[in-house]
Write a structure and sequence with these properties.
GO terms for molecular function: RNA strand annealing activity; RNA strand-exchange activity. RNA chaperone with significant RNA binding, RNA strand exchange and RNA duplexing activities. It is found in: Cytoplasm. One of its GO terms (biological process) is post-transcriptional regulation of gene expression. This is RNA chaperone ProQ. The chain is α+β, with helices and mostly antiparallel strands and 225 residues long. Among the domains are: 82 residues, Fertility Inhibition Protein O, Chain: A, Domain 1 (Orthogonal Bundle); 59 residues, SH3 type barrels, CATH 2.30.30.140. Helix content is 48%, strand content 17%. It is built from 5 helices and 8 strands. A 6-stranded antiparallel sheet has the order 3-8-4-5-6-7, with no helix packed on it. A two-stranded antiparallel ribbon has the order 1-2. The protein is rod-shaped, with a radius of gyration of 42 Å.
Length: 225
């Protein structure tokens, strides 16, 4: 009876698997051990019948492991290289350390650049948000000023027009009002034309010509003679 073997595809999982299989060679924390030159071929041979990992995944995991900062720091002149079983398999030489130091510096520079780019992107994303928060306030303020001015003009214009028929307006009586009746509502200084939409005891609902519906007392409603 055969059992299905789950292949590892995540690089970190593959490295953890290698550390479990070859603890004298690979490690997940602490000081790393420099690896034998040609360690991939040795791994491929030892794991050729292992269905858990493929050669491609082993190669990717090995590249990730040896490019890590922890590993690059361990590559120092005179340090011992090890094989899969932890046996001595060479010594780190000057050019090996130089190459590791260069790779470490480039990796740190790339990480710093990515972090700077991320910060700039976050700042750029945050700036429009603050601008957007400020603009509506300015727009609202401007709109209020515009509304404060425009009604005055409309009222001044409307006053001239309304003064003529105002002589013919008379206070409405509750029993005179009907739904649908055209009336004048004194919501401000100048009566505004509208239509009665609802009568609720002393409250009269009137839809003004501008589309707004107001609720006023009977005393604020006028009819034309």
């Amino acid at each position: 009876m055969t059992t299905d073997v789950k292949k590892l595809t995540n690089t970190k999982d593959v490295i953890a698997y290698l550390a479990e299989k070859f603890p004298e060679c690979f490690s997940l924390e602490g000081e790393a051990k420099p690896l034998k030159i040609g360690i991939f071929e040795e791994l491929a041979e030892r794991l050729k019948d292992d269905e858990t990992v493929s050669k491609t995944r082993i190669r990717t995991a090995l590249r990730h492991y040896t490019n890590s900062w922890r590993y690059l720091r361990a590559v120092k002149v005179g340090a011992v290289r090890v094989d899969l079983d932890g046996a001595e398999a060479g010594i780190i030489e000057g050019d090996h350390q130089q190459h590791a130091e260069q790779a470490l510096a480039e990796s740190k520079a790339a990480a710093a650049e990515r972090a700077a780019t991320k910060r700039k992107a976050q700042q750029a994303a945050a700036k429009p948000a603050s601008d957007n928060n400020a603009k509506p306030k300015a727009n609202v303020s401007a709109a209020r000023k515009a509304r404060a001015k425009s009604p005055a003009k409309r009222h001044s214009t409307g006053t001239a027009k309304a003064t003529k028929p105002s002589v013919n307006l008379t206070a409405a009586q509750h029993d005179q009002l009907q739904i649908g009746q055209q009336v004048q509502v004194k919501a401000g200084k100048v009566p505004v034309a509208g239509q009665v939409t609802e009568i609720d005891r002393d409250d009269i609902h009137v839809q003004l010509q501008n589309g707004l519906t107001v609720k006023v007392k009977v005393s604020a409603v006028f009819v034309t003679k």
